[in-house]
Task: structure prediction
Amino acid sequence: MRQSVFFIFVLLAFSFAAKTQNTAPPVPAEFDIVQGNITHGKFDTITYQSETVGITRKAIIYTPPGYSADKKYPVLYLLHGIGGDEKEWLNGGHPEIILDNLYAEKKLKPMIVVMPNGRAMKNDRATGNVFDREKVEAFATFEKDLLNDLIPHIEKNYPVLNDRENRAIAGLSMGGGQSLNFGLGNLDTFAWVGGFSSAPNTKLPEELVPDPAKAKEQLKLLWISCGDKDGLINFSKRTHDYLDKNNVPHNYLVIPDGGHDFKVWKLSLYTFVQLLF
Ligand code: FER
Result:
């Protein structure tokens, strides 16, 4: 990558350890463009038996370049939004391009990315009115499916490291709310948590982090990002304000001119994954 030429600087309010910093990490303009002469990872669609939903469910897995069953990998669970399903990241965000470019530059620890369907109900397609109450509730039910069905399936069938410090959870919008709710609610399972443009399903900060000292001690990374023009930004901001007030270190990234879209989610993923593991 001709980085010296192709840099755009995303101006952001970046907060480390509750200190706001106004300089931006640089993002190469080609961060989401396929590069020649690099190696690529591989997608797989998997199925697992969900006792929670009572059906066989699908998820998509991205294994890194050079993947080998003789190695052991940390896992990122990457969740979609209200209008999506297990393919939303793949179709809208092309995480494989972002990750392969980072792997080629040795800026990323090899990991397995699992993209599940976060609408835990029998018909989990994003059809009809996706705001129907039962469909929205299914995003909460997914906590059980994830913890009791999907994670055990992954850990039984893939060469993964299975302790909290090797599990991350992040997502966009409804998936951002899920990641904050499930990640912060299960610190014994996840040490790395990220919410991108988190939706109204995000619990109140006092419920998310009832014990700031414990969260501070256990979290390796707590990430919150949102576009400044996103109508949902208050769900991120109120969480950030509470974390600041209670001295829980976290990264807070407000993306200028950012809407509720994949521009924000791709930039978030690019910056977030480099901090993992
Ligand atoms: C809402 C507005 C937005 C809501 C959910 C969303 C459940 C989710 C948006 C997304 O996932 O992109 O009022 O209520």
Summary: Confidence is low (pLDDT under 50) at residues 1-23.
